[in-house]
Amino acid sequence: MTMGPEPNLALLGGQSVERLLKRYLVATRPAFLVASLAPVLVGTTAGARGSGEMDWLAAALAALATLLVHSAANVLNDVADDQSGADRSNTGRIYPYTGGSRLIQNEVLSSAQMQRWGGLLLLAAAGVGIALFALKGPWVLAMGVAGVSFAALYSLPPVNLVSRGWGESTIALAFGVLPFCGAACLQGGRFDNDLLLLSAPIACWVTAILLVNAVPDIAADRAAGKFTLPVRVGVANTRRLYVLLHVVAATTILAGIAWQLLHPLAALAALLSLMAGSNAGSNIIANDRTADKTSDTSRERLKAAIESTLRIHAIGSAILLVAIWLAPTVIGSR
């Protein structure tokens, strides 16, 4: 099932500069890049609030490096899923949210071209990381190596973390805790335990995105030997984990308010997480009730759950950014 035209040669073929740029941009799955950009922006705000000044160059480089790593991860994941057969056999996909970019399957780009593109994106990210290393010191190198490693090991053999049930925890670190804390340290110059608490809601939300997006792909992933967490635990337990993530996000937000690390308006993000997350979770369980043959109605509800999860992440992150800036207590002053 698709929710719009998949990429094809009629739309993206040809050798014009415009078509070339467009198909390589589509390969990065840009609609999902806000998932990694948000923690950088919020973390940068936390660090600048703590230090009392903003290093705009470091902030821009951190955002660029994170976007490049995330883009590379998306591209390389497409390569791995094509090689395993997960995307080729995926008839239950909800495009553009699940089942990959479809560029390889629809013969817009070859697997080799996608692999080269993913490698180039990682090299570009490494180049930006070197610039940050020159600006901020050796600790940046460790953060950069961790980010690039997560991007490569997430889906590529022989490690293939996502197929071993470690994809969700990897994403929580790589697109939640790591970019948030790294961006904050680039501004504030040092790590503080408060950063872990403030990064937790975003880490939960981005993990929820991965969790709900994997539900339509369960049958194809299982057949391809890609044992994601939803494949391992089933849809009903996936729904419970999904709701739990939103409860944890709300709880950590309320703790941040109690410790004056967040302005009370952050309670709006907690409320959003609980209410919208619970509603989206009910749509995930509805998909399970149709057993092997999923009805169009339940697929629409699952699509709504995916889109709601993306909105929770984006809106919640924006609220946290403002709440951190207006907080009574700055990072590291407790």
Task: Describe the SSE topology.
Layout: H1 9-12, H2 17-27, H3 34-51, H4 56-84, H5 111-136, H6 139-153, H7 167-188, H8 193-213, H9 218-223, H10 229-258, H11 267-288, H12 296-325
Q: What is the strand content?
A: under 5%
CATH architecture: Orthogonal Bundle
Average pLDDT confidence is: 90
> How would you name the oligomeric state of the polypeptide chains in this document?
single chain
DSSP strand count? 0
- The tally of helices reads 12
Order of helices and strands: HHHHHHHHHHHH
Task: Explain what this protein looks like in three dimensions.
This protein has 334 residues and is mainly α. The protein contains twelve helices and no strands. The longest helix has 30 residues, at 229-258. The protein has one domain (9-325): Orthogonal Bundle (Farnesyl Diphosphate Synthase), CATH 1.10.600. It starts with 8 loop residues before the first helix and ends in a 9-residue tail after the last helix.
